Amino acid sequence: MDNVLLLNARARVLADLQSRGAATPAAVSALEDAVSARKWWAEQWPEGEVYVAGLVAQDVQDALLEIECRWPLCLTCEGEPHALYIQPDLGGPDPVWVCEETGEPVAALGML
User: Fold this and answer.
1) Residue 85's pLDDT band (boundaries 50, 70, 90)?
2) Per DSSP, what are the bridge partners of residue 107?
3) Taking the CB of residue 73, how many other CB atoms lie within 10 A of it?
4) Phi and psi at residue 103, in whole multiples of 5°?
5) N or C of the chain: less Cβ packing under 10 Å?
6) Measured between alpha carbons, how far apart are the two ends of the chain, in Å?
7) Domains in the chain: boundaries
8) 17 three-class SS
9) Which long-range contacts (CB under 8 A, 24 or more apart) does 40-43 make?
10) Residue 35: how many CB atoms within 10 A of its CB?
11) What share of the chain is helix, strand, coil (3-state, %, to 5)?
């Protein structure tokens, strides 16, 4: 497993957490847990390394839903708050945040 890919995934998700004011201790802990788990996953399936960044983002998103809140919320639409999600579903190779309501891309992972 290439540690550079893991560090890149961590940095991109942390940048998105920070951009939305969600880099709480619990969120950063969830991020560290996700990176650790995906390291093992990528070691088992080396061809899956290209999916790690998006999967880490999805893991953090799921963890935050359980412990704090929905993250990240779409800031481009009017009306009821709704989330963004990572596309493609498997998280790579070029993950982007997509609006849950419109299906439109909002930002590349790490660029919220």
Assistant:
1) very high
2) 97
3) 14
4) 75, 5
5) N
6) 27
7) 3-108
8) helix
9) 42/1, 42/5, 42/6, 43/1
10) 19
11) 55, 10, 35
Q: Stretch 51-63: mean pLDDT, rounded? A: 96
- pTM score: 0.94
The encoded tokens of residue 105 equal: 């891309």
Please state, in angstroms and as integers, the Cα–Cα distance from residue 76 to each residue in 53, 81, 87, 110, following that order: 23, 10, 17, 17
Dist CA 11 CA 6 (whole Å): 9
Distance CA 55, CA 38 (A): 8
> Do 98 and 58 form a contact (C-beta atoms < 8 A)?
no
C-alpha 18: how far from its chain's center?
A: 12
Q: State the burial class of residue 16 (Cβ atoms within 10 Å of its Cβ: 0-12, 13-18, 19+).
A: buried
Please tell me what DSSP assigns to residue 94: S
Confidence of residue 90 (pLDDT cuts 50, 70, 90): confident
